[in-house]
Amino acid sequence: MHQELDRAVGAWDEAGWLRPEVVLVSGSGLAVDLGDPQGRETPLADWLPFQTHQIEGHPLKVQLLTTEQGRPVLYLKGRLHSYQGYDAHQTVFSVRLAAALGVRTLIMTNAAGGLRGDQRPGDLILIRDQINLTGLNPLRGDLPSEWGPRFPDMTEPYSRRLRGLARDRAQELGLALGQGTYAAVAGPSYETPAEVTMLRRNGADMVGMSTALEIIAARHMGVECLALSVITNLAPGVGSGGVSHEEVLQEGKEASGRLQLLLASLLNDAALVDKDRSS
Ligand code: HPA
Questions:
Q1: Quick check: is 277 in a domain?
Q2: N or C: which end of the chain has fewer CB within 10 A?
Q3: String of b and e for 21-42 (b: at least 16 CB within 10 Å)?
Q4: d(Cα 146, Cα 131) in Å, to the nearest integer?
Q5: What is the block-wise mean pLDDT of the chain (279 residues), using blocks of 10 residues?
Q6: Residue 29: alpha-carbon gap to chain centroid
Q7: CATH no. for residue 157?
Q8: Which residue from 110, 196, 232, 250 has its CB within 8 A of the most atoms of ligand 1, so it is best to mutate?
Q9: 210 CB neighbour count, 10 Å cutoff
Q10: Rounded to whole angstroms, how far apart are CA atoms 53 and 30?
């Protein structure tokens, strides 16, 4: 993967694209419109050294956008999931590419099932911490030491500073924004009622099939992380019905407007990138 990453960085520079400062990754049905990429848009597959396939609600595109303040932002519109058959290294390749390009800040969105009775579909929740139950870890194996430490600290996977910033921006916009712990599962089957009970008892507030591996890879490479879940459904036993992919996509679409407001505000915030931070 080391040489493949170097090659992808070389291809980026050859394309004449600016190096981004921030990467935004959007989840299931949560794509937002952040302005005209002015021709700087390609399929994500162009940057990956392996074959990809697409599933409904996940258009896989890469855009390079410039905010009103002139900040270059890499927007990964759609992501790879391990349940599609990708291994952990493939799943996080695009986040590693962003880090190798010099990105200092990562923002992610995802669709998640609510594990608490006070949650409602459509709620926006900041991820405060995560529980990686996927059985995978993108740091397995021999990785180049310049990527990061063998045993990286995970005391603050989601930056307290960035969460504070997101809460401030949400408050200004009049958007409700909770905080919670995200349990990442392998999927693709949704959870059984017994699994939901286990997750709740163990301190999780929402459950989903993404994000955790990318956060591990990003923290390993010293990138400051922020992530937002959209509650698209209540998990079995929390809500009254079952869970369907259609419901997840529909609720995601309905939350996209609020998400777009918050993301645009954050991406334009001068404090989003902490230039003095060393990791
Ligand atoms: N479980 C797991 N992943 C999900 C869910 C869920 O209920 N909703 C959206 N992604």
A1: no
A2: C
A3: bbbbbbbbbbbbebeebeebee
A4: 26
A5: 89 92 89 84 90 67 90 92 93 96 96 94 96 98 93 97 97 96 96 96 97 98 97 89 79 84 93 77
A6: 13
A7: 3.40.50.1580
A8: 232
A9: 28
A10: 19
Ligand 1 cavity residues, CB under 6 Å:
111-113, 190-191, 207-209, 232-233, 235, 243, 248
Residue 243: inside a domain, yes or no?
Answer: yes
In-domain check, residue 124: yes
**pTM to 2 decimal places:** 0.94
Domain count, the chain: 1
Expressed as residue numbers, the domain containing 26 is 2-271
Is position 12 within any domain?
Answer: yes
Q: How many CB atoms neighbour CB 201 within 10 A?
A: 9
Tokens of 25: 């990754």
Cα–Cα distance, 228 to 26 (Å, whole number): 10
What is the C-alpha separation between 193 and 235, in angstroms, rounded? 8
Q: Are 227 and 109 in contact (CB under 8 A)?
A: yes
pLDDT of residue 274: 84
Nearest CA to 228 out of 92, 123, 105, 81 is that of 123
Nearest CA, atom 7, ligand 1: 113
| Separation of CA 73 and ligand 1 centre (Å) | 28
